[in-house]
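To: structure subgroup
Subject: Chain for Friday's discussion

All,

I'm putting the inputs and outputs inline so they're searchable in the archive.
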Amino acid sequence: GVALSVRMVLWGGLGVLVFAFLRLWGSGMLSDEQHHFRQVLAFAFGDRSVLPSLTTLPTWHFLVSLPLRGVDQPSLEMVRLANLSAAAAALAVFAALARELAPQSWGWRTLQLAALPLFLPYASLVYTDIPSLVPALLCLLMALKGRHRSAGVWGLLAVLLRQTNVVVVFAAALIAWLERRDSANPQEDSGREASNLQLVLAYAPPVVF
């Protein structure tokens, strides 16, 4: 296949995301956006109460509200722009992950994600799905690189943003355990036990939370 440069993937992915963002401009709130947008506005205006209609922890809503606290009337497009930025970050992390797993086709795989029907329609909507994908992918990437403490931290953030990401943390922990098992020396039992304990300490907090 045709090899893609980093610049081609970057501009191609961003182009798809920006196109989807502009298509939604002025469309008004769609589906559950009303609940998420109201929660962001509540935090932005100093109201710390959590809407009962939310099905996730309001972590992303709080983070998005921080730069909006000095804005008189935050618009839907402002909050959607934050989600668009998260989608761009998710593409970048996915590209790094794809280069680890499929160095020959990482560019096409990244562009496929950008246009994926389960990704693109939510990239600009005020939902928590895409923002939570950033730490979830970083958790997997750090696990593949053997940086398990960092993977545990990103896994915890992923669960704080969206609780179903605990599945990703389990997957990262499984990857780490399999790699340790395959590389361990059978004669070094004590070292292997200590290594397994480190994995438990790294990945247990997100799961327990």
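Points worth raising on Friday:
The radius of gyration is 19 Å.
Residues 184 and 191 are 9 Å apart (CA to CA).

D.
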